[in-house]
Amino acid sequence: MAEKNLHVLLSSISPWLHDETYVFCTVSDKQFRALKTEPICFFRESEGVSIIVEQSAADAAVLAYDGTWSLITCEVDSDLNAVGFIAAMSKIVAEAGISINPVSAYHHDHLFVPSDRAQDALALLQEAPMCPLPTRQPITDIRDLIPLVFSEQKAVKAPGSLLTQGIALIRSKFGYTLPDDMKLFYERCADVKVFDRYSIISLQRAMDIDRSMLPQSWLPFCEMPNGKMIAIDLSEPNDHYPIIDLDNNGFDYIVIALSFTEFIDKILSHSGDSIYWIDHSEQAGTVNVHLSNKQLRQKHKEYWDSLGDTTKGERCLNGSCDTHRISLSVFCKKHQFEQIAKIECPFTTDKPRKTFAEYTFD
Ligand SMILES: [Zn+2]
C-alpha cells in the first residue's frame, strides 16, 4: 500500500542515482510529434511542450538546453497525497545550495539535480537521518525538562538579577509578562545552545532584536544557525503562547508549538540531527501578519535582496523566460520573487533598453 505517513516516508526513502544524464528542453507540438526518442517526462504548456530527455537524445535531435541534470529516485512507494514529503527533501538539498527540480509520478518521487552536484545531493539524502520519530512520550512539565537540557548540553545558570531585570524590562517595554514555564526555564538556563543548533538567548539580547516588522507581542528568543529566529507570542491568543518560526521567506508564519514547554520538549525528544517542524504534521497552523504598505514594501525589498545573484548556469524554468536561474532556485530572481511574494515583481535586474533612435524637434 502506498505510504502516507511522513515519518515513515522520510526514514525509508532509499534514494538511488540513475546513470543517465538528462536535459530540459522546450519543443513545439510539431517537433514533439517528430521526436525519435521517448522523453522520460513531458508537460504541455501554452508556450510549448517541456520535455526531459537523455542528453544524448537531445544532442541527436539538435535540441537546445542549458545545464545537465541527474535523476535521483526515491524508492519508497509514496502516496500522491503525502503532505510535505517533497518539501522536506527539497529543503535538505536546498540548504546545501543545490537546486532541485522534483517530479512526482504515480509510484515514486523523482528529483532532478544538477549533474555536477548529484553525488552531493545523493549523500545528503542518504545520510540525513530525517525527522525521526520522538524517542519518548511527551514531557509536559518544564521542571522535568530542565535537567534534560543540562544533561544534553552545557547550560549556563542565569544570574538572578539579570533575569529579574529582563522580566521587568519586558513587562515595562512591551506590557506583556512571560508565561510561567518560560520564567522557570530562564531561572535555570540562559544562553543555552541545545544540540548545537537552538540558541535560547538571554532576555536582554532578545529585546535588542529588531522587531519593527513583527507584531508588538512577539518576542524572538531562539536563534538558529542561519541567523533566523523563533519567537513566542506573549499576547496569549486562544489561551496559548504559540511558538512561531520567523524563517518564513514568504509572508505567512508557521506555528511550530503551542507553548514554550512543548517547544523545548520537541527539540529534546527529536534527535539533534533534525529540525522537527520540517515535518508538517508537527505544525500547529499558520499566522498571518498584515503589514502596512510601507512595511510590505520593505519586506519585499529585503526578500529581493536576499535572493542573490544570477548564476551562469541553467536557464530559469519559468515558461519561456530566458534569464539564468539564481543559485538557490530553479527560477530566475524575478520569477522566484513572484512565486513567493505572489505579486508582480516591482524590482528589475534589466539593464536600460538600448536606445534605438532619438529625434529632437528644433
Ligand atoms: Zn525567469
Q: Domain count, please report it.
A: 3
The name CATH uses for the topology of the largest domain is SMI1/KNR4-like
> What average pLDDT do the residues reach?
80
Order of helices and strands: HEHEEHEHEEHHHHEEHEEEEHEHEEH
Name every ligand kind in the structure: zinc ion
Q: Tell me, what is the CATH class of the largest domain?
A: Alpha Beta
- Gyration radius, rounded: 25 Å
- Total helices: the number is 12
- What's the overall geometry? globular
Given the helix and strand composition, which structural class is it? alpha+beta
Low-confidence runs of at least 5 consecutive residues: none
Question: In the CATH hierarchy, what is the architecture of the largest domain at level 2?
Answer: 3-Layer(aba) Sandwich
Strand neighbour order, sheet with most strands: 7-8-9-10-11-12-13
CATH superfamily grouping of the largest domain:
SMI1/KNR4-like
What separation lies between the terminal Cα atoms? 81 Å
How many individual β-strands?
Answer: 15
Q: Report the helical percentage.
A: 25-40%
How does the major sheet shape up? Answer: 7 strands, antiparallel
Amount of beta strand: 15-25%
Describe this structure in words.
- The protein has helices spanning 6-11, 29-34, 55-60, 85-94, 118-127, 142-152, 160-174, 180-188, 203-208, 260-269, 293-306, 333-341, and strands spanning 15-27, 41-45, 48-54, 69-74, 101-104, 109-114, 192-194, 198-200, 218-223, 229-233, 243-245, 252-257, 285-288, 310-315, 324-326.
- It is an alpha+beta fold.
- The protein has three domains: 6-127, VC0802-like, CATH 3.30.2130; 142-288, SMI1/KNR4-like (3-Layer(aba) Sandwich); 293-341, no CATH class.
- The strands form three sheets. A seven-stranded antiparallel beta sheet has the order 7-8-9-10-11-12-13. A six-stranded antiparallel beta sheet has the order 2-3-1-4-6-5. Strands 14-15 form a two-stranded antiparallel sheet.
- A hairpin with a 3-residue loop joins β7 and β8.
- α6 (142-152) runs parallel beside α10.
- Zinc ion binds at residues 316, 318, 321, 323, 331-332, 334-335.
